[in-house]
């Protein structure tokens, strides 16, 4: 923030600083670029230890800044987070002198805000907060990093950067003239295809007007085309008179930022999550987002009120209308690499009339412990009582599409307790659906199964086993042939664990449901499976061979090899050896049904 940093900076300047350049050896720099991620990780750990031991450091870092910039683009996202934490600790340990390194990695730090993984973006925001504390916002404006970031057509990057910029502009007392360069890319963000980006860009407009005035911003609309210009000018005119932000508000924001910055610096990534959530609440208010924003407080107040004993689900309808709205593109499709703010806002809007106030507060609380409370409540109402009936089975079915969407968000959380509890809930739900003879619709399945398939590649064995068990339960209420399509998509993942598990599941599907499960046809399914025999991972190759052995036992031999198509001599010999070892025989005259299915 503003005024409070001066004394702290001057005090830090009086502290003796340690030269760590001797410890940043060429060997250590080389390890940072090693092909093995474990070696790179160990090198980053050593650098973390060196900086922590030195506490206050001089700007003598040798080739370390450039080497750390390279790790911001590391394929291993955990190492990217570690690198961001190191860069933040460098800024804290060096103070204002760290500004000299921004031309090296400042742009790369901002670019990380566009990462698909939320935890990486959270770490990037925390890192930028620390730098802004040490070198102020002007350093980022002068370097052009914000302008370049906003000009990049990446909704994650634009969204995170806009929230961060709006917060920093509100806190800043005065800024350099380069702030004017932000105007044009901001106008581009106001027309972004993402509604979330447009919403966040609108929030930056009054903060920017407060620093450069509305007249300059109106003049800058001259280069916009007709309809675009009309939209932007109308928005600007709405904020006429906001040319100077209230001093009291600016002071309050500055004080809040200082406290937030200290918390982030102390707690690293954990602190960053708090900072990010505070920033992201500065959205255009809607009824649901207002409720969600008050969720932490609401949970405690609701618990004390009469709503405590009420059922968690309150709605019996609306699913057909939601399905129709999505089909007609009136609402966002639940389809993403990582959930965005606009998806969350939409889900909050849709769930508001369907769940109790207390349940809503628990479901959208910032603390994962409240998610467990929410899941326990949902499990309770789908667990059969002594009469064999679940308390809220009708309400669960009526709200199933939204509940499955909320569960899919939990798959992006990092807390294992929440994840396992969510998987327990799903097991209860699908058993109940099977008993009710309720079939999962395509609308419900398409927004949930792809994310379930992703979790079968989880690092924890307990999670993978639970997901595999759910695959079988899903097939009780959803066609196995359609499930097969999602599983095959999962074999294309970059995650080798996911490829292995999906190939093993294909083996099980074929065993349980015969070749009729194979989509879009048996020949194409066999050809797709054979492509995995050449996988670099030995376990993936083995799983693919086992799946093909299962297919072989249900096909005539000539048809099997015809469908395999052209493979290398080595791959064919591997497959022949696996078939021989299995002892299984191809289908022949004794299995006409299987041959007909081909």
Entry summary:
67% of the residues lie in helices and 0% in strands.
What is the strand and helix layout of this fold?
Layout: H1 5-14, H2 26-32, H3 37-54, H4 64-71, H5 77-94, H6 102-111, H7 118-143, H8 145-151, H9 155-171, H10 183-189, H11 195-212, H12 214-219, H13 226-238, H14 247-267, H15 269-280, H16 287-293, H17 295-304, H18 319-327, H19 341-351, H20 357-363, H21 368-382, H22 393-398, H23 400-410, H24 416-436, H25 442-446, H26 449-455, H27 461-474, H28 480-490, H29 496-513, H30 522-530, H31 538-552, H32 557-564, H33 569-582, H34 592-597
How many strand elements?
0
Mean pLDDT: 84
Which blocks of ≥5 consecutive residues have pLDDT under 50?
1-10, 243-308, 589-598
Count of helix runs: 34
| Range of helix content | 55-70%
Quote the beta fraction: under 5%
Assembly category: single chain
User: Shape, please?
Assistant: globular
- Whole-Å distance between the termini? 69 Å
The radius of gyration computed from the alpha-carbon positions, rounded to a whole number of angstroms, is: 28 Å
Class from helix and strand fractions: mainly alpha
**Biggest sheet layout:** none
Architecture overview:
With 598 residues, this protein is an all-alpha fold. The chain has 34 helices and no strands. The protein has helices at 5-14, 26-32, 37-54, 64-71, 77-94, 102-111, 118-143, 145-151, 155-171, 183-189, 195-212, 214-219, 226-238, 247-267, 269-280, 287-293, 295-304, 319-327, 341-351, 357-363, 368-382, 393-398, 400-410, 416-436, 442-446, 449-455, 461-474, 480-490, 496-513, 522-530, 538-552, 557-564, 569-582, 592-597. Helix 10 packs antiparallel against helix 11. It starts with a helix and ends with a helix.
């Amino acid at each position: 923030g503003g005024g409070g940093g001066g004394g702290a900076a001057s005090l830090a300047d009086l502290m003796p600083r340690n030269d760590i350049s001797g410890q940043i050896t060429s060997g250590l720099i080389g390890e940072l670029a090693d092909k093995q991620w474990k070696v790179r990780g160990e090198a980053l750990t050593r650098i973390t230890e060196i900086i922590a031991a030195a506490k206050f450091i001089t700007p003598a870092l040798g080739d370390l800044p450039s080497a750390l910039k390279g790790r911001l683009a590391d394929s291993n996202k955990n190492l990217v987070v570690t690198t961001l934490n190191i860069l933040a600790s460098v800024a804290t340990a060096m103070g204002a002198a760290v500004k000299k390194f921004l031309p090296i990695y400042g742009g790369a730090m901002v670019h990380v805000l566009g990462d698909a993984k939320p935890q990486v973006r959270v770490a990037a925001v925390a890192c930028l907060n620390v730098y802004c504390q040490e070198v102020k916002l002007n350093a980022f404006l002068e370097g052009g990093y914000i302008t370049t970031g906003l000009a990049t057509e990446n909704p994650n990057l634009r969204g995170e950067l806009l929230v961060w910029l709006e917060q920093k502009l509100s806190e800043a007392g005065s800024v350099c003239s380069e702030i004017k360069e932000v105007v044009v890319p901001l106008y581009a963000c106001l027309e972004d295809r993402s509604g979330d980006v447009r919403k966040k860009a609108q929030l930056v407009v009054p903060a920017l007007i407060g620093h450069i005035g509305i007249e300059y911003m109106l003049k800058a609309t001259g280069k916009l085309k007709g309809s675009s210009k009309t939209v932007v000018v109308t928005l600007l005119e709405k904020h006429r008179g906001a040319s100077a932000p209230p001093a009291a508000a600016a002071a309050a924001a500055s004080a809040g930022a200082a406290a937030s910055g200290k918390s982030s610096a102390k707690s690293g990534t954990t602190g960053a999550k708090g900072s990010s959530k505070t920033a992201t609440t500065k959205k255009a208010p809607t009824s649901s987002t207002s409720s969600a924003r008050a969720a932490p407080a609401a949970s405690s107040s609701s618990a004390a009120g009469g709503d405590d004993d009420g059922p968690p689900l309150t709605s019996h309808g609306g699913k057909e209308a939601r399905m129709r709205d999505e089909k007609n593109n009136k609402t966002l499709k639940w389809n993403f690499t990582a959930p965005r703010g606009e998806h969350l806002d939409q889900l909050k809007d849709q769930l508001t009339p369907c769940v109790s106030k207390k349940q809503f507060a628990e479901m959208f609380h910032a603390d994962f412990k409240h998610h467990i409370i929410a899941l326990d409540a949902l499990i309770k109402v789908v667990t059969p009582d002594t009469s064999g009936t679940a308390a809220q089975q009708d309400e669960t079915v009526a709200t199933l599409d939204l509940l499955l969407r909320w569960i899919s968000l939990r798959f992006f959380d990092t807390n294992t307790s929440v994840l396992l509890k969510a998987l327990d809930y799903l097991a209860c739900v699908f058993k109940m659906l099977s008993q009710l003879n309720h079939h999962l619709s395509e609308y419900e399945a398409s927004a949930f199964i792809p994310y379930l398939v992703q979790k079968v590649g989880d690092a924890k064995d307990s999670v993978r086993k639970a997901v595999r068990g759910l695959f079988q339960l899903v097939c009780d209420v959803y066609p196995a042939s359609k499930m097969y399509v999602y599983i095959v998509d999962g074999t294309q993942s970059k995650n080798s664990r996911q490829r292995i598990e999906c190939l093993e599941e294909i083996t099980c599907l074929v065993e349980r449901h015969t070749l009729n499960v194979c989509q879009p046809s048996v020949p194409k399914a066999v050809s797709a499976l054979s492509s995995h025999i050449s996988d670099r991972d030995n376990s993936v190759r083995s799983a693919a061979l086992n799946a093909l052995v299962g297919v072989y036992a249900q096909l005539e031999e000539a048809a099997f090899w015809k469908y395999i198509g052209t493979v290398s001599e080595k791959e064919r010999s591997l497959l022949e050896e696996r078939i021989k070892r299995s002892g299984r025989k191809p289908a022949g005259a004794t299995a006409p049904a299987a041959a007909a299915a081909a």
